[in-house]
């Protein structure tokens, strides 16, 4: 059973929307009202597993199985909004998926290409729903045209606040943690933070998900009971729900069941979270006192408590400035790609020419430049 790119193109012409606006039956409304008497998770993470098995089960092409999985995602996003879940993080494509056959990888890339383009065609809906779309992962591993589409979506929606969709694409948790460690090491080398500032809290803030609270609930479909390198750090104190249904078959009732599972375990999870937070604060405070005591001058007149408090304030300022630096760096990454894409589409190109051994950069549009180095014609196409 082949995963055909042509099949992806054919099915995408059906123009599945990201905003299906399904009518709710009275019994769904009643169930939501009942669930609202208990705590509702604000952030839900989903491992959308079972698309290929669904295709085999229903004697269809793998490509159609993946498309059915996308359609299910758009439905689940609406269900989540209906019930008050304002942030959803989905595992769309693992770095490990690059090891699949070239045909299937091409199929998945084409699906991403078409669906992100479709999302940009629904700008009015993005504004209406107030959805902020973030793409988390090593985006540089993706084809350049997909990077550009993703950058457009991310930059267009970044100021929306009503709902957040995090799409983990070219992602694994181990790669995310390694990237965060490299960023922290860079921060130390640049003098933005000190060695002594490195902590669990700093690492957590340096992850791709640093802008978001950790998931309250993680759902995995297909009956597999493992995390598959997805949000390993962030789900340490999350409620885990493993559902024995393939992702395209996931229904409202399965979602309601997962929320009930979360509500039954809510008190225990909260106690564990609060204990962990208290332990982290205690360890940080002890570390601050130890550092101040080591650096304290014998002639110092201020008390150890006062100096430790001042050190903690300075540390928090350094950490906050560093985290802001990281966010700006990541925003700039997407902004630069989106800007480059717009220039290419508009036919704007930058070329270097040699004028009496003085190099300069000359922007031009739809023109021919002839020098003793190179002849270039810009017609708005890729070179």
Descriptors:
alpha/beta; Undecaprenyl pyrophosphate synthetase; 2 domains; 6-stranded parallel sheet; 11 helices; 15% strand; magnesium; UPP_synth-like_sf; endoplasmic reticulum
Give your account of this protein's structure:
Its EC number is 2.5.1.-. Belongs to the UPP synthase family. Its cofactor is Mg(2+). Strand 9 (368-370) and strand 10 (375-377) form a beta hairpin. The chain has helices spanning 5-12, 26-35, 51-57, 62-83, 102-121, 123-129, 144-157, 173-189, 200-206, 252-295, 304-346; strands at residues 43-47, 87-94, 131-136, 163-171, 217-220, 239-242, 348-355, 358-365, 368-370, 375-377. The chain is α/β, with parallel strands linked by helices and 383 residues long. It folds into two domains: 5-276, Decaprenyl diphosphate synthase-like (Undecaprenyl pyrophosphate synthetase, 3-Layer(aba) Sandwich), CATH 3.40.1180.10; 347-377, no CATH class. It has eleven helices and ten strands. The longest helix has 44 residues, at 252-295.
CATH class of the largest domain: Alpha Beta
Radius of gyration of CA atoms, rounded to a whole number: 25 Å
Oligomer: single chain
Distance between the termini: 36 Å
Number of beta strands? 10
Q: List the helices and strands in order.
A: HHEHHEHHEHEHHEEHHEEEE
Q: What is the CATH topology classification name of the largest domain?
A: Undecaprenyl pyrophosphate synthetase
Structural class: alpha/beta
**Poorly predicted segments:** 1-5, 7-15, 349-383
CATH-defined superfamily of the largest domain: Decaprenyl diphosphate synthase-like
Count of domains: 2
Strand percentage, roughly? Answer: 15-25%
Strand order of the largest sheet: 3-4-2-1-5-6
Average pLDDT metric:
86
Tally of separate helices:
11
Helical amount: 40-55%
Main sheet?
6 strands, parallel
Subunit structure: Forms an active dehydrodolichyl diphosphate synthase complex with NUS1.
Keywords: Coiled coil, Endoplasmic reticulum, Magnesium, Membrane, Transferase
Pfam family, one: Prenyltransf
GO molecular function, one term: ditrans,polycis-polyprenyl diphosphate synthase [(2E,6E)-farnesyl diphosphate specific] activity
């Amino acid at each position: 059973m082949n995963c055909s790119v042509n099949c992806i193109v054919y099915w995408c012409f059906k123009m599945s929307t990201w905003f299906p606006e399904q009518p709710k039956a009275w019994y769904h409304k009643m169930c939501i009202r009942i669930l609202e008497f208990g705590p509702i998770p604000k952030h839900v993470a989903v491992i959308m597993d079972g698309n290929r098995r669904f295709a085999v089960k229903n004697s269809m092409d793998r490509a159609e199985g993946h498309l059915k999985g996308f359609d299910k995602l758009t439905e689940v996003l609406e269900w989540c909004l209906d019930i008050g879940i304002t942030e959803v993080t989905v595992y769309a494509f693992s770095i490990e998926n690059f090891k699949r056959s070239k045909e299937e990888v091409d199929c998945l890339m084409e699906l991403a290409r078409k669906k992100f383009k479709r999302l940009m065609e629904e700008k009015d809906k993005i504004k209406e729903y107030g959805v902020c779309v973030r793409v988390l992962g090593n985006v540089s591993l993706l084809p350049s045209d997909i990077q550009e589409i993703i950058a457009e979506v991310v930059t267009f929606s970044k100021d929306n606040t009503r709902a957040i969709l995090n799409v983990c694409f070219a992602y694994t948790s181990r790669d995310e943690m390694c990237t965060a460690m490299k960023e922290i090491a860079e921060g130390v080398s640049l003098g933005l933070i000190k060695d002594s500032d490195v902590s669990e809290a700093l690492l957590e803030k340096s992850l791709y998900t640093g802008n978001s609270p950790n998931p309250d609930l993680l759902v995995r479909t297909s009956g597999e009971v493992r995390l598959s390198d997805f949000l390993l750090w962030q789900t340490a104190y999350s409620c885990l729900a493993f559902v024995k249904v393939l992702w395209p078959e996931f229904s409202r009732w399965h979602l309601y069941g997962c929320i009930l599972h979360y509500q039954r375990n809510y008190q225990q999870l909260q106690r564990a979270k609060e204990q962990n937070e208290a332990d982290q604060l205690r360890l940080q405070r002890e570390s601050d006192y130890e550092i101040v005591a080591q650096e304290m001058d014998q002639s110092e007149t201020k008390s150890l408590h006062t100096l430790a408090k001042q050190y903690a304030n300075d540390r928090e300022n350094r950490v906050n400035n560093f985290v802001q630096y990281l966010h700006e760096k990541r925003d700039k990454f997407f902004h630069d790609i989106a800007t480059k894409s717009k220039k290419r589409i508009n036919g704007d190109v930058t070329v270097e020419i040699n004028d009496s051994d003085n190099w300069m950069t000359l922007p031009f549009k739809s023109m021919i430049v002839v020098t003793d180095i190179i002849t270039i014609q810009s017609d708005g196409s890729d070179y």
